Amino acid sequence: MSVVVFVGAGPRTSGVLERLGANAPALFGGPLEVHLVDPFPAGSGRVWRHEQSALLRMNSMAEDVTMFTDSSVVCEGPVRPGPSLAEWDWSTVDLPEEVRAELAAMEPTSFPSRRVQSAYLKWFHAKAVESLPRGSSVHVHPTRAVRVTGSSQLRQRVWLAGRSEPLVADVVVFALGHLDTVLSPEHAALRDHAVQHDLCFVPPAYTADADLSVVPAGEDVVVRGLGLAFIDLAVLLAEGRGGTFVRVGGVLHYLPSGREPRLHVGSRRGVPYHSKTGYRLQGAAPEGPRFFVASDLLARPGEIDFRLHVWPLIAKEVAYGYYRELFTGHPSRVRLTWEEFAGRYAELEWYSAEMRALEERAVPGMADRLDFEHLDRPIDGLAFDSADGFQEFLRSYIRADVERRSDPRFSADLGAFLALLTAYGQLAVLAASGRLTGEDGWWHGFFSYFASGPPPDRLEELLALSRAGVVRFLGADTWVRAEDGVFLAGSASVPGHVVRAKGLIEARLPTHTLSVTADPLLRSLAAGGDIQDRAGLVAVDPVDSRVLDASGAPHARRFAVGPYTTNKAQAAFARPNTNNPAFRQNDAVARAVLEFLAGDAVDESVA
Which of 123, 199, 367, 514 has an alpha carbon within 20 to 30 A of 31's alpha carbon? Predict the structure, then answer.
């Protein structure tokens, strides 16, 4: 029986398992022996495991979450549609009562808890296992893989922590998900300062895994980061410590428990991620990619520079999606027909005076025009005389954002969001080619800030925490120094204001690269020259995700998927009907695995 070992058993592995089952009838006749190696629960994995606070939620609506391929997915294997989270019939599934109660109350536009998503992912995982060829078996090993040996010509040995004998496999698929890193020199120095002066320091971490018990109640604590990690942090340090939210006269208020710290939070932008939209498109359905098409760029020779060749096309693609919804969904706010505008738009470069003139002529309202520079850095150049004045300003900014993202009159923002999703998929193709240069992380940060923000009610809660004094906003270009036995912090937004704090929390995920990985398996593979470090990522074949060694040669029996690879599709699940890159990669990997197993006639001896 052919043996496949998956290192990592989260939702990405479930997706590949489902594709193995879908493609096996055409490509492979026999059963499979599958081994799943992961210290976290199979199906849900680390991020979506049930064993985390019930207060933590998704930042996606139930109708925008699926694990199933649909007609939009361009792949060689058969499409096997299935229910989104909103469509899932969970009535016959064995679930905890609190999860059943939440599912019973859930609407398609609800933002469910992570425990609900965990249940959906575990159910899908079971369906994927059931789809494997008749006679297959699946074995779960709740531990870590620490080493893999074996050439392309020999079966692989997968060594597990705490086990003397390795697993022996025909094929190994690395699906490691999001990974930890060793402390950077900067964070090691901050930790040492905290230890020396009896301060609190929390380095970059997955918020659900961070030890927040060290954060002192009633003390001033600086927080760097205003993204989703901060939203989770604020939830756990406020409501998670016994505080409550109450609505009075339509306004949300926070009643402190007295066990909260005072969080002074800032970031490079100085503002939270934009709220998720709470409406649907009002106009024409979105089109596929028109201006930013990866295959067009790959047809040209040489390197592809992100700022020079890619970003102008992404900007034009996203703006096209935005204006398509504005013109077709809100024609009273424009002066041209969509056909007139779109025809001229297609002829112009995004960063051109002619394009700006077209926008001014066709879109009279400034609030209806798309300005990427202001969108990216909305409070640059603003300076306030007092910290209290800045609090009032930023609360007004957040209120306006929640109102805009909840008002269908501004559904053009959703048009831009959908175009961003399309652009993300095209960019993944470019990144996998190995020819993309100059992308320093700005794009992913901008995408997350604009398109992957929290539900609107989370920002309402943030406003309530601010009014209650639990959260204080520092501003843009926040700086932090470890001096004078404390942590000092300030920003460009309030130049004369300096906070002296007893703690510092880095509210962001670890930035994983191979040079700083804490994963023992990747460290072992890198030390042995069995993987190629390409800008900090594990290099894989852009077609089938086979692992490339240090010389660039693909390993016939090793595959890798996930954000730590050059084929770094980020999310294991997707919004329906978006031709998700991860789904396409899952299919390609599954087919390559099955084709290899079907044609494997090499020596069955062990390396």
Answer: 123
